[in-house]
């Protein structure tokens, strides 16, 4: 099982949600988050003074899938939908997931996802 966590621009939220719902995912978590990447935010001039804007609003998607092949597919969809080529497009983190438990039934692992 694989967990994919993607931090993307706010503007791609709806398109990415639609793209992910069009494939066979069995669950998704979305959060509004704040973050910075390698640029550590940026500096903007506000009323003549430089202001550091370190933490920018982003959207985090979390998706757990049962197979490596499907994880690759989800990563491809995220990349295709979220890329502009400009700094700040975001990152995709891919984790090996130890276990999943469906609370209602106490199913574990792949059974708890599908
Ligand atoms: N190393 C990291 N650890 C945790 N979160 C990160 C990391 N890098 C990026 N993020 C998250 O992803 C968001 C977008 O990052 P961003 O796209 O700016 O990455 P980057 O490495 O600076 O790439 P780019 O040069 O394209 O901007 C950040 O606001 C932050 O929430
Ligand atoms: Mg950046």
From TrEMBL:
GO terms for cellular component: cytosol. Belongs to the P(II) protein family. SUPFAM superfamilies: GlnB-like. One of its GO terms (biological process) is regulation of nitrogen utilization. SMART domains: P-II (SM00938). InterPro entries: N-reg_PII, N-reg_PII-like_a/b, N-reg_PII/ATP_PRibTrfase_C, N-reg_PII_CS. It comes from the Bacteria. This is P-II family nitrogen regulator. It comes from Candidatus Pseudoramibacter fermentans. One of its GO terms (molecular function) is enzyme regulator activity.
């Amino acid at each position: 099982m694989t967990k994919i966590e993607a931090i993307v621009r706010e503007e791609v939220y709806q398109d990415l949600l639609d793209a992910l719902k069009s494939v066979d995912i069995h669950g998704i978590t979305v959060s509004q988050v704040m973050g910075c990447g390698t640029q550590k935010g940026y500096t903007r001039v506000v009323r003549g003074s430089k202001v550091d804007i370190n933490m920018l609003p982003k959207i985090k998607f979390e998706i757990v899938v049962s197979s490596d092949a499907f994880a690759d597919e989800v990563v491809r969809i995220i990349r295709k939908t979220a890329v502009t080529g400009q700094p700040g497009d975001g990152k995709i983190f891919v984790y090996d997931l130890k276990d999943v438990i469906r609370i209602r039934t106490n199913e574990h692992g792949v059974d708890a996802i599908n």
